[in-house]
Write a structure and sequence with these properties.
Strand content: 15-25%
Strand order of the largest sheet: 1-2-3-4-5-6-7
Order of helices and strands: HEHEHEHEHEHEHEH
CATH class: Alpha Beta
Helix content: 40-55%
CATH superfamily: Aldolase class I
Number of strands: 7
Number of helices: 8
Distance between the termini: 16 Å
């Protein structure tokens, strides 16, 4: 049964479930499968070796599904960073069809703000992935639509503070004025986690 929340209404999906960016996992077939199941999946931009390869992967997703999907663009400080501007240009270009609706940003590269503005101007629903509430508040000031709060037990790149979800989520609920998605999992009771996640999403609807 569809669940109506701010997230589902904004993106035109049936279930408030996001398959976020995962390096060497977030390819078109997975994003399309999640979309066809009623959630929204993300293609991981930097898994693709070039902006041209990203464009091909986005178009492959459009062939596999007619449902909404997203792209994850992680901005990291590197000695030799990729051409973020060209990746962003491809994403903006491919948004014209209306099927690519969500952009998930992550990282703290010094050029984050221009990309948020670029994607928002193109009509994207921008979710920024954060591991600390202070980072989420900074992203909120930049104008993102929603936050993905990722605690230490979320795996992947859980930040440097090692703060778990059960500490992070209540703090985010108190201090943020925009909605957030509860990301990650809980190692003892999946039922408890799903219940918490659904209750939180309903409370922000």
């Amino acid at each position: 049964m569809p669940i109506s929340t701010k997230l589902t209404r904004a993106l035109g999906i049936s279930h408030p479930i996001i398959q976020g960016g995962m390096h060497y996992v977030g390819y078109a077939p997975l994003a399309a499968a999640v979309g066809n199941a009623g959630g929204i999946g993300c293609i991981t931009a930097l898994t693709q070796k070039s902006p041209e390869d990203l464009q091909k992967e986005i178009r492959k997703c459009k062939e596999l599904s007619k449902k909404p999907f997203g792209v994850n663009l992680t901005l990291l400080p590197m000695l030799a960073p990729p051409n973020y501007s060209e990746y962003a240009r491809v994403v903006e270009e491919e948004m014209a069809s209306g099927q690519l609706r969500m952009i998930e940003t992550a990282g703290h590269f010094k050029g984050l703000e221009p990309f948020v503005k670029q994607f928002k101007a193109a009509g994207a629903f921008v979710i920024h992935k954060c591991t600390q509430v202070r980072h989420a508040k900074a992203a909120e000031r930049l104008g993102v639509d929603m936050i993905s709060m990722d605690g230490f037990d979320c795996a992947g790149h859980p930040g440097e503070a090692d703060v778990g979800n059960w500490v992070l989520f209540p703090k985010a609920a108190r201090e943020l004025s925009i909605p957030f998605v509860a990301s990650g999992g809980y190692d003892r009771s999946t039922k408890e986690f799903i219940f918490y996640k659904v209750v939180h999403l309903l409370s922000t609807s």
